[in-house]
Amino acid sequence: MKLDQLSPDHVALRRPETVMRLARMGSFHQSRLSFMRVLLRRLKSENWRFERRAFEIDARGVGHAVYTMHGPARSYSLVAFAQDLAPEQRSDRVIATAWDATFTLFDGLPSAADIARLSRNVPLQEAGRVTARELTVSRANRSVRLFDHVVDCLSRGEQPEAGRVDEVGYLMRTTAVYGSGKLGAADRESICDRPEFAAPFQAEMLTVFLIRGFVLDLVEHLAALRGGDRAVALDPSLRRRIGIGNSTGLGMAPFLLNHPILLNNWIEARETALARIRALPAISPAEAAAFRVMLRRGRRNIDDWHSEHPIQRDKISGLKADLDRLDAHVESGALEGASPWDRLYLWSETALGLEGQELLVALMMEPYGALVDDLPMRMSADESAGFRIDGGMSVARLRDILERDYAWVLGIDWNSPEAQARAWYVSAEKLEPRLGERHLEPVAAYEQPLAPGRDAALLFAALGREASDARVADFLLRHPEHRHILRRVQIAARHPYAEIRDNTVGAEVLPIDLLRAKLSFFGACHFDPRSDRWVRINMFRNAPFPHELAEMEFAGWTYPALPEALS
Amino acid sequence: MICSLNEIEALARKAARGAGMSWGLAEEAGKAVRWLSDHGFPGPDLLAELLRRNDGKPYSDLAPRQLDGVWRARRGPLCPIVAGALICDRADELGQGATLRLGEIAVPLLLAPFAYEAARTAGMTVALEWQGVSLVLGGAAPRLAGDETALVVADAGSVALFPADDRATASVRTSAGRQVSAETMRALEGFATRTYAPATEASRAGAGAGREGD
After folding, report:
1. Under 8 Å CB-to-CB from A280, ≥6 apart: which residues?
2. CB atoms B211 and A91 under 8 Å
3. Using CA of residue A425, residue B14, residue B86, residue A496, what is the dihedral sign?
4. B4 and A445 in contact by Cβ < 8 A?
5. What CA–CA distance (Å, rounded) separates A459 from A449?
């Protein structure tokens, strides 16, 4: 069946009122559309070649390395600097000043002079500067629980115990992966016309992919230096189960609010994928078999998901119950008959929790690469395209838009203390976004524009005092304080999934929902919230390594292989 | 220091907000400075000059009013960010062939990005003229005619913006628009600092990653 025969009218996209809720977005899972998977599909289909151009690390773990991927038109090099950090210096906070390893992704092949320049800047992170030749800047810390243990085991000629590896899942975790012009690096706008960067966050994902390869090489290198002839390399299947961890806090939380068109494009792509699959009139036996395998592998992935956070523990146990119900429903013949995917999805809306519904959405895409893999190319956005305000719009038209797209804000009593319990602000101490208690801390005067619901309600009230045929241009001349939200409302009118339809400053808001939504689009797994405002995740777990891309079969690589397939 | 355009835009936005602009106008300032730097003009220097001059002035003083067909501030020179936003919001009038006349205005080159954007919206080419210098905007790179030294004046008597034939003139040189001097950086960071809240113990706790179980 051709794509254009799957008329989007046959099954409508889910409504923004359904999708754009924080509780649902905080239950999103990675999928075929996630940026890590987009990257690896491209590297494999275009036969990108890996080369380790330098690895000069001493027995203490100090030195540098250069890991290069050669593509059809260009090469990119991860330049890694490793250090020997005293334990008391190790912190994942953005306020840290030293890291076990620091990285940059260089555009091309770095010369000795480039390496020397980078060695004076990249290890300093925020205190250093890079140039437009660099695309990203990143850093990582060792897992205290696992790194030394694995080096120790391998140096004695033993493999680490798989259970202990799985419990942590990574040897190093990144604490920032900066792109888009940060610290003087190349602006995204200067590289976004390259096909390899057409989908979002590809330079950042390539950076993390190469970091993972470097870290695994590093432990084996240190083990060999320590153990000499006795030392062994990691068993390849165990090796692949190790990803890169990441700690993400409030710094990332405002991103989705600050990029409304980008958010719209991510969600619209995902919803379009779901609608295309729901529109299929039948499932072939091969597709049904592929889905059953992915369902079982998806279950194994959930079994590997550990969190001690009470909210996430409940969500994981609810998800396991959801998967039991889903499995029983599928085995009772749910994949047979007419429009089976549409019926299965509609069943999930009443039978499963949000975690289960959203995992089903992701799993339904797995057998249908030919149907959905074109969508990531639509997921980037030129945010500036929504910047200009339509000053000729009438006040009456603007009111209509607010009543349609912001109906949810008009029902909230914004004067109640709970409705505005929180305020987003930037702290003078570390210039990072924070979420404060508006009624308890002196932060309201410094509030960032991250409460679109509240601001839309204020705009609506102000418009009530205007003539219906007045022009937006005249209103803004008298009311510059509404310029930010008015721009946003006009963007939301053109982009149905641009706005989150929940109060982002209420007493109940959970910033981890914003983090989960964004990180799921990256392709992260095993979300492990450590509070309501920061989360640990795993990236590229179960993925092939850079040197394995050509030979390894990796459809659905995120999901652990089934035991029978391994033997 | 050579900065990326994203750094320049973010710093300009924060500085404008710190100097008292609404968030929506501060966003306009960020985009305008970015455009100037991208086209070889000293955007951050121009904004620093403007913010120094307008520091502490209430919007009611700067708000443009039209008297005898000329837009003027209630008190003192017009702010080019406020006036620029007005130009963009009225791009449809420009498209109908109108000439926009602005009275005394501070740092007039800061109007150029707005005039460019309004021209793009209206699908036309426009000229922005003051004190014997004319910038032709629309389509490709900005073109210049007349007295180049008037380009970066801190005050202009009056400015006219009107639809123009593309009388192709010299392209504006592209200098190091992304080079930001230490002095300008300090000035803009000084304004930006006003947007940051003093940290409290409560805010520090739990904002980011801790060390337990790592």
Report:
1. A1, A6, A339, A340, A341
2. yes
3. negative
4. no
5. 13
- Tell which of A126, A483, A535 to mutate to test the B interface (max B CBs under 10 Å): A483
What is the rounded CA–CA span in Å between residue A513 and residue A278? 26
Residues A427, A505: Cα–Cα separation, whole Å: 17
Instruction: Parse chain A into domains and list their residue ranges.
Output: 3-30+260-380, 48-249, 383-494
- Tell which residue, A65, A207, A64, has the closest CA to residue A134: A207
Rounded distance between C-alpha atoms, residue B156 and residue B106, angstroms? 6
In the chain, the amino acid numbered A534 is W
pLDDT in tens, A259-313: 999 999 999 999 999 999 999 999 999 999 999 999 999 999 998 888 889 999 9
Q: Does A96 touch chain B (CB under 8 A)?
A: no
Confirm if A460 and A402 have CB atoms less than 8 A apart: yes
* Cβ atoms A232, A154 nearer than 8 A: yes
- B205 vs A: CB within 8 A: no
- Which pLDDT value is given to residue A94? 63
Query: Closest Cα partner for A135 from A159, A163, A103?
Result: A103
| Structure-token pair, residue A497 | 């999934």
Highest mean pLDDT among A292-306, B6-20, B155-169: B6-20
Tell me the domain boundaries of chain B: 5-194
**Shortest alpha-carbon distance between residue A87 and chain B (Å):** 11
- Pure H helices in B56-141: 59-62, 80-89, 91-95, 112-122
Distance CA A529, CA B180 (A): 40
**DSSP codes joined into one string, A139-156:** EEEE-TTTHHHHHHHHHT
State the smallest CA–CA distance between residue A514 and chain B in angstroms. 14
**pTM above 0.90?**
yes
Give the total residue count for chain A: 567
d(CA A281, CA A340): 7
> Chain A residue with minimal CA distance to B64?
A477
Residue B76: the pLDDT is 93
Residue among A65, A95, A186, A83 at smallest CA distance from A136: A186
